[in-house]
Design brief:
The chain is an alpha/beta fold. It is built from 9 helices and 10 strands. The protein has one domain: 3-Layer(aba) Sandwich (Rossmann fold).
């Protein structure tokens, strides 16, 4: 991974004004090697955009997949979040949740599609998130199935309200989710309580499968940390893009 080619990354910052959130939101956009505006690209949208780039090293992984594994070049859009209001935006019981979903689907997606040569079919879009970012990605797909059908959930925080919302769905056969959780995540303290993420993911997997969703599900030794998720990102990306 120290190869110079892998570390040479093109990352653009964009700022959009969100009428739903009533504030500006920063996007980090990774453009693949050989990027050309006359081509078209699959696109990965990440919650916690800053962390996916800084701690997940997603741009370096993307370079490696494209340059060394022969994966078709793709664009990554990281949506940044203020950690102070992250739970309010990502959790279904948060007071900014609805505004965030609307901003993502109705402002960020159109902005990217107007300014970058990304493909517009749901099968060419992937939503990725860790913890609450994983669960909010599922909620985005449930609300906007015409936009999102493919999700990477790294230790998704599928709290009771999220599970209740999944229960209300009759048919999720259109949904394809890559889920992974660490076996040492069975007693994790968050800002809203202590949770057993292993059980939350197992029970959510069952709920999704009962409704016909296609699930690739993994449990591995790991903690609720980027040190775990970072190593799992290439396989997760390959699941949809390889």
């Amino acid at each position: 991974m120290t190869n110079e080619r892998l570390l040479k990354r093109t990352i653009v910052k964009e700022v959009i004004q969100s009428k739903f959130l009533q504030e500006n939101r920063t996007l980090r956009i990774y453009l693949p090697p050989g990027y050309n505006e006359i081509l078209s690209y699959p696109v990965v949208y990440c919650q916690d955009g800053e962390e996916f780039f800084n701690f997940g090293r997603i741009a370096t992984w993307a370079n490696q997949l494209i340059l060394e594994e022969g994966v078709e070049p793709f664009i990554i859009v990281g949506v940044e979040v203020n950690t102070k209001v992250r739970t309010e935006e990502y959790a279904p019981f948060g007071n900014r949740f609805d505004a965030y979903l609307s901003c993502f689907a109705e402002e960020i997606i159109p902005f990217i599609e107007q300014n970058y040569p990304v493909r517009r079919e749901p099968s060419e879009r992937v939503l990725a998130g860790d913890s609450l970012g994983g669960s909010v990605s599922v909620h985005l797909a449930l609300r906007y199935p015409q936009l999102f059908t493919r999700i990477i959930s790294l230790s998704g925080a599928f709290y009771e309200k999220s599970q209740d919302m999944i229960r209300e769905e009759a048919d999720l056969s259109w949904l394809d989710i890559y889920m992974i959780v660490g076996l040492q995540e069975d007693n994790y303290t968050t800002d809203t309580g202590v949770y057993n993420f292993v059980e939350l993911n197992r029970s959510t997997k069952a709920l999704l499968e009962e409704r016909g969703a296609r699930i690739s599900y993994l449990e591995k030794d790991g903690r609720h940390l980027w040190g775990f998720w970072q190593k799992e990102l290439p396989a997760a990306l390959m699941y949809f893009l390889g």
